[in-house]
C-alpha cells in the first residue's frame, strides 16, 4: 500500500502536488524516533491509521498518554515552514513537537539533550476541526508561529494523539517563500523621515500579516511570506501610519509585492489638520432620497474607520447634506441628519467610541450645486462631510 501511495503522488517537499490516498496509510511502525518515516516528498501526507500506544519504557516527551508517530523531512527551498495537522476525527487532540536534525539526533533525544523548536503539548487545537500546526504569525487558533528554513535542512516532527482509541491524521505542508520590502516613511510636505508603523496583510487570508516599526532614521524593513498556491488571486494591503498623520493604504497583487522588493520603496504620509481634509477624507455620498451609501464611497468610509481606529484621540463632526430645493424642508433636515447618523452607526458598530463622533444635518442649505443640471451634480449634493475637531 505504501509503495502504491508513493508512486501515485507527484511530490515536492513543501511545494509540490499530491494525490490523496484512497486508503489509510499504515503508520504502525513509526512510534519511536529511530523509526521516523521520511515524508520529504509529500505536500499532503495521509490520512493515516491511528498511532499505536507506546509503552512508558520508551523515550518520549509528551505529557499525555503516548500514541506517537514520528516523521522527518528535508527542505528543498528557503522559506517559512508551515503545516497543518488535521485529525481524521475532529474530536481527537494531537500534540506535536518539531526538532531540527543534528548528528545522533535520536540518541540525544532519548537522553533529553534536544530542545524542540516548536511544541504544542497543552491541548491547543482549533475548536471545530481539531487542527493544529504552524501558521505564519501563530495567531490562528491552535497554531504556533512558523519558522524560517533553509534548503537541505532536515527536521523531525513527532505527533501524539492524547486519546485512547483515537483516529489517524493528515499532514499538509504549505509553500511560503519570504521576501523583504524596505524603504523610508516620509512627511509628504518636506520629505522629513517619520517614526511610523508599517503593516502588510493578505486580505484573502488575514492570518498572513506582518508589521514593523521604523528605526530612528525612518527606515523600515518588512519581511513577508507569499504563498505560491494562492498568489494568483491574493491581494495585499500595505499600511503605514504615524501619529498625527493620515494612514497611507495601498493595495498590491502578489506579483507587485515581489517587484517592490527589488529596490527601496518610500511611503509618504500627509499630516492631519483640523476642519476638512478632503484630499485624504473625501465626502461620503448617498443614493437619492435614501440613507444608503453608494458603493464607491466604501473606500472613504473604510479609510475614516482605519484613521479613527489608529488615532484614538481624533474627534469628528459628521455633516449631512441633501439635494433639495431651497429653503430646506423638515424632510430635508431629517434626511441629512439621518445620513450623518448612518456613518456614525457604521463607525460605532466597528468599535469606535460614539462620544468621539458628533452629527449634524444641514438639509439643502449647503449644496455644492445649487442648480444641479446632471445626476452627477445631484450626487455631489447628497453627501456627508467629515470635519475633524480634535486630534
The CATH topology of the largest domain: Jelly Rolls
Order of helices and strands: HEEEEEHEEEEEEEEEEEEHEEEHEHEHE
Say how many strands there are: 23
Q: Based on helices, strands and strand pairing, what is the structural class?
A: alpha+beta
What separation lies between the terminal Cα atoms? Answer: 68 Å
- Poorly predicted ranges: 1-21
State the major sheet: 6 strands, mixed
Mean pLDDT over the residues: 88
- Domain count: the total is 3
**What level of helicity do the residues show?**
10-25%
Provide structural commentary.
It is a single chain. The protein is an alpha+beta fold and 391 residues long. It has three domains: 2-174, Jelly Rolls (Sandwich); 177-269, Aromatic compound dioxygenase (Protocatechuate 3,4-Dioxygenase, subunit A), CATH 2.60.130.10; 275-390, OmpA-like domain (60s Ribosomal Protein L30, Chain: A, 2-Layer Sandwich). The protein has helices at 2-7, 105-110, 254-260, 298-310, 330-349, 375-381, and strands at residues 37-38, 44-45, 68-74, 79-87, 94-100, 118-120, 132-135, 143-145, 147-149, 154-161, 169-174, 176-187, 197-202, 209-213, 219-227, 235-241, 248-253, 267-269, 275-276, 284-285, 315-320, 357-361, 383-390. The strands form five sheets. Strands 2, 4, 7, 8, 9 and 11 form a six-stranded mixed sheet that branches. A hairpin with a 6-residue loop joins β16 (235-241) and β17. The longest helix has 20 residues, at 330-349. The chain is elongated and about 90 Å long. The model is unreliable at 1-21 (pLDDT under 50).
